[in-house]
Automatic annotation (TrEMBL):
Its main location: endoplasmic reticulum. GO terms for cellular component: EMC complex. The chain crosses the membrane at residues 50-70, 91-116. It comes from the Eukaryota. It comes from Staphylotrichum longicolle. It is a multi-pass membrane protein. One of its GO terms (biological process) is autophagosome assembly. It is found in: Endoplasmic reticulum membrane. PANTHER family: ER MEMBRANE PROTEIN COMPLEX SUBUNIT 6 (PTHR20994:SF0). This is ER membrane protein complex subunit 6. The keyword RNA-binding does not apply. Keywords: Endoplasmic reticulum, Membrane, Transmembrane, Transmembrane helix. The lineage of its organism: Eukaryota, Fungi, Dikarya, Ascomycota, Pezizomycotina. InterPro entries: Emc6 (IPR008504), EMC6-like (IPR029008).
Length: 118
């Protein structure tokens, strides 16, 4: 939790948190559909398809963190893996995308699996 002094120096703006969440959600929805296309074309079935989705969704979160969040966190002196300054919580950042994009993944996965295997 941030102290009052830290909030005075660099305040957390709710509009910025909402914009960051929207950007991350859009990225996760887009990549979930792309992962569904990939899983369908590869012909993955059952657990291997779901494992494919989970691994690549978490990989997307890690890449987003490394390329976008980590440089600014390190520059501001924050602890590693601390996303509280840019997002509502760590769950929203690390695992929220797995649930948000799941429906789009399954939809495109079954569509492309049917198209390729038909």
């Amino acid at each position: 939790m941030s102290s009052e002094r830290e909030l005075e120096i660099s305040p957390i703006v709710q509009e910025s948190l909402m914009q960051n969440s929207r950007t991350l959600s859009n990225l996760q929805s887009l990549t979930a559909s792309l992962f569904g296309v990939s899983a369908g074309i590869l012909g993955l079935e059952s657990y291997s398809g779901f494992l494919f989705y989970i691994v690549f969704s978490l990989l997307t979160a890690v890449l987003f963190y490394v390329l976008r969040v980590a440089p600014t966190s390190i520059a501001s002196g924050k602890a590693p893996l601390d996303t509280s300054r840019y997002f509502r919580g760590p769950y929203e950042f690390w695992a929220g995308g797995v649930m948000n994009g799941f429906a789009g993944f399954v939809l495109t996965w079954t569509l492309f699996y049917g198209l390729v295997r038909a």
